[in-house]
Amino acid sequence: MDELDTVVDALAEAQLVVAATGAGMSRESGIHTFREAQEGLWERYNPEELATRQGFQEHPARVWGWYNYRRGLIAQRAPHAGHRALAELEELVPKVVVVTQNIDGFHRDAGSSNVLEVHGNIHRFKCFEQDHPVELDEPVSDSNGDLEPPRCPRCGSLIRPDVVWFGEMLPPGVFQDAEAASSACDVMLVVGTSGMVQPAANLPLVASASGAMVVEVNVEPSQLTHYVDVFLEGPAGQILPALVARLAARHS
Ligand code: BJW
């Protein structure tokens, strides 16, 4: 019996499976991971400085342009077989919750129905000062970082993407639900995250402490590998469809 079978055995018995995904989940869709070098106009900037309130306050046009560039890229790309496999898992397990750090919306696009986006969503907007939600036609054209963001119609402060920057709290209800699912699940699939960013990186430890089997899918070991029960080395777009196909074969 190989490691894949060990995981399939656990999935076959599971009532609740949580898939905790990070940037590596979307890598095979052509979206760069967060800690990979950036490209083109944006290669000279450090994402960890752009994704902060201070970065936006000091250079709002730059940060706005960076998100517009990334939104444009996301619009040209689509979920891959790994995203679709997690959606198909819903047919094979009583409950599946996807907890994602990704802001691209690909899990919902692929058909997953219980998705908790703990770092927000690039397609939503809010204002900088008051968090007023703002409806905006997606400004994909202004992606050079030359134009200031528009202003909130209610308070006049600058509009920003509704994502979570360093030093900001995660959306409280969403993160509580993610913690609750992590502590109640039977199996957690940790996919494509470096495990460097808190508090999301703690969720696999919550699952493990509550008795779940924690399975990591990654192209290389991460900061979480030491804590997981099974490490499946390889790309999400290959490993997840293989897992789900083996589980489906048990059902037929
Ligand atoms: C594949 C693959 C394939 C590739 N298949 N795998 C000390 C000082 C100050 C703050 C802190 C501190 N210590 C901790 C903190 C808190 C901070 C933090 O964790 N910082 C660390 C960097 C040290 N966290 C926060 O600030 C959070 N808020 C918070 O804690 O509030 C309380 C608080 C308030 C005030 C002060 C202190 C605390 C908020 C974190 C928000 C993170 N936001 C971002 C940006 C979102 C918007 C955007 O995308 O622009 O979220 S940062 C970035 O990192 C993004 C990601 O979601 C997140 C995680 O990255 P992820 O997903 O793991 O991607 P990578 O690139 O790191 O890894 C990719 C992985 O995929 C790799 O392992 C590859 O091998 C793998 N891979 N191809 C499978 N095909």
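^ BJW complex. DSSP finds nine helices and nine strands in the chain. The longest helix spans residues 60-76.
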